[in-house]
Amino acid sequence: MLHPLTPVLDVALGNQFGIPALNGNNLEQVTAIMEAARKTDSPAIIQLSRGARKYAGDWALRALMFAAADQYPEVPLVVHLDHGNEPEVCRSAVANGFTSVMMDGSLLPDGKTPSDFWYNVAVTRHVVEIAHAKGVSVEGEIGCLGHLITGTGEKEEEQGAEGKLTRRQLLTDPDEAAEFVKLTGVDALAVAIGTSHGAYKFTEPPDADVLAIEHLAKIRAKVPPTMHLVMHGSSSLPQELRDVINQFGGKLKPAWGVPLEAIQRAIRIGGVTKINVDTDNRLAITAAIRRFLVEQPDKFDLRDYWRPARAAMQEVCEKRMVAFGSAGQGPKVREKLGGYGQKS
Ligand SMILES: [Zn+2]
Q1: What distance in angstroms lies between residue 334's CA and the mean position of ligand 1's atoms?
Q2: In terms of CB atoms within 10 Å, which end of the chain has fewer, N or C?
Q3: pTM (whole model) above 0.90
Q4: CATH code of the domain in which 203 resides
Q5: DSSP string for 166-177
Q6: Which residues are catalytic, by number?
Q7: SS3 label, residue 146
Q8: How far is the CA of 298 from the centre of ligand 1 (A)?
């Protein structure tokens, strides 16, 4: 069975843990996430982006998400649309069985021009009406992702602000966040605190000037106590994975991500419950495939290299489930969802 995001995050908020929201594009990634959730007894949030829908097609993704639910009946599973850029994209996701959608109205439909507050309110409110009518949860975004000092953020999946952003755009205003929640009725809110998408988040280990974890407490103080806060761009960019990629022919430039301790603090002081992690899994898969193809140049069966790649991604997923505290929380979430265990 697939479940809406809200009741799953409610358990996380009530028990002070976070859940990694992990992107899937194909069978291998979805299996890696579900195996990790099964092994650690964690709920699973699988995110499918517009890019994933374009890559795999809605029919295949739809079959994949229901297959995951059937094959792992004990895992509380949410399937979430990542960064819907306009209401129609969210509407079609709802029609395809997604149980949660993000309407990112912080940018215009082109995915690169920052919008204004009232545009954001209008499109998000509209999606809330469409989604809630079908029991689907909605995540909104207020503020733009990007580096707090340079004012730029990396584009990913055709989504990301272009040009130089002001600090006011880059750091979510707590009062504006509270107003946005009240006017739209969203279930979860993505906020900007200095993180950005992709493999180049920070050029040195991030301190409070570039990663404003403490700011989350100010936002938390203004929004309703039941509101779910979401951190995007929260990969940690492990050095060991980057090293393997470069050792086997890759050319990644030095970069730092969001340290796991910073995320744990965000969960503790900000009550953050959904943490988006994608790049770390991409790095794990790429490192494993690069290593395999160099070390075993006579092999050509794709299952030979996808098997270690999938295992490498599963390992990252398990580590995040443990670090964010969702490991072992399956029983509490299943209880909240009605003690189900049956197939969909
Ligand atoms: Zn994002």
Answers
A1: 27
A2: C
A3: yes
A4: 3.20.20.70
A5: PHHHHB--HHHH
A6: 82
A7: coil
A8: 39
